[in-house]
Amino acid sequence: MLDRIQVEKVSILKLYQDALQKYRQYYQNEVIDGAYRRKNEQIPEDAFREAIANAIVHRTWDVNAQIKVAMFADRIEVTSPGGLLKGLSKEEYMAGQLSILRNAIIANIFFRLGLIEQFGTGIQRIIAAYANSKTQPQFLIYENSIKIVLPVVKMKLQGVSEDANEVYSILQNTPLSSSSISQETSFSKNKVLNLLEELIQKGYAVKLGNGHSTKYRRSK
Question: Percent of the chain scored above 70 by pLDDT?
């Protein structure tokens, strides 16, 4: 777990903003891309916003329990008190086909402030944020709680094999040797070299140096 902070006896709007600030501290950074700065998100902010808003808007407020936001190096877990409302199935919850508001006043405030969009679309928006990721969010529904797990995004590259995608997920901006990459995977060094060549041809990786000193890194 990366950090621990307890927020209580504050407005739900401050709770929302404090959670967002802590997310940005650990899962967002700016990177230099040529002459430009761009925002890099390890976990999509849209997905995190929806998960937090969903927890606040749909939680059970008449029990002595807290919303828990656990931040790890590879994921965020958002757990809210209260299971699904009676009459709402897991399939309907996931598809957003039926929106039953547990806290209509809070939901309307969040909607009017632009913190949520159309009622019942939050889960679909979380799923959409991971459309191009090999890792996918999880929705764990229990009798008395709901947990949303948001993993760190691992992008799926277009036009290359699954094995090449795996090699790309290991590549960093810091150059790595083919031997180092081979140790991180189940692939032989020769196969790694072939997969690296596939990535280079598609413009996803670059080769640095020659001979035994050859290394590879992401091109972007």
Answer: 91
